[in-house]
Structures are given as structure tokens and as C-alpha cells.
Amino acid sequence: MQRLTDETVLAVGRLTLAAAELEFFLARIVADQAGDDPATVFAVPGDPLLAARDLVRFAAADRHDEFSRLLDSAELYLTQSQRAVRALWSEHGRVDAVTFDEITGLLLRCRDRLQELFDDVVRVPSA
Predict the structure, then answer these.
(1) Out of 5, 20, 48, 53, which could bridge 26 as a Cys pair, Cβ 3.0 to 4.6 Å?
(2) 126 in a domain, yes or no?
(3) How much is the pTM?
(4) How far apart are CA 20 and CA 3, in angstroms?
């Protein structure tokens, strides 16, 4: 593994937390629909995304495409985050804080948009 600057170590931490945050949000969506505990869905890396993909078929017609695209994006960003962390052990990997922070931003924006979409779907009209 390459020697890392403090800035890069902090960026890796932010990335790791953002990826986990996105996966936990996906687990929460799945658990809400199935009446399960989000921690159970979250327990195995990758399972929240797979389980959320199963929900696409139940999405309302006007939300189906956006939900599907957001899950595609989530998969891409989670894969990028894993590759970036693994690049730390590659002699030729680019391992700077900027790279990690860019991916972190993508993960968090994806989570935020999923949250907005989820809130729109479950929002109860006010009286």
C-alpha cells in the first residue's frame, strides 16, 4: 500500500461513510416495504442494492424510470468507490483526496435524490 497523506486518509474515510450511508438508505427503503429491520438487509455488502432492484417492478409508473436510473447510478458509484479504495494497493493507482471526494459527492447526491424520490412517494398530503 502506498503512503497516504492525512488529507487522503480523511477523504477515504468520507468515501467509506458515504458508500455505507447510501447502502443503508437502500436497506431502509427495502425494509420499509417488507416490514423488515434495515440492519438485517444492510448486514451483507451489496444486498441492499440487489433488494432495492427487486422493488423497481413495484414502483409507480411515473417513478419507475427514475428509480431504475438512480439504482443504476448507485451501483456505478458504489463500484467506483470500491475500485478507488482498492487502487490504494496498486502501484499505478491514482490515490489522491480529490478523487475520493469526487466519488463521495456522487454517492451523497445519489442518496439525496433517492431520499427525495422516496419522500415524494410516501408523503402524506397535509389536511
Answers:
(1) 48
(2) no
(3) 0.86
(4) 24
Pick left, alpha or beta for residue 93 (phi over 0 → left; psi -120 to 50 → alpha; otherwise beta): beta
Rounded-to-integer distance, Cα 99 and Cα 47, Å:
26
> DSSP state, 102?
H
pLDDT, tens digit, for every residue of 43-65? 988 889 998 988 887 777 888 88
In a domain, 127, yes or no: no
The span from the CA of 109 to the CA of 113, in Å, is 6
Residue 1 lies in a domain: no
Cβ within 8 Å of residue 44, ≥6 positions away: none
* Spatial distance between the Cα atoms of 10 and 32, rounded to a whole number of angstroms: 32
User: Does the residue 32 lie in any domain?
Assistant: yes
Range of the domain at 92: 6-121
* Cα separation of the two ends of the chain: 58
| Domains contained in the chain, number | 1
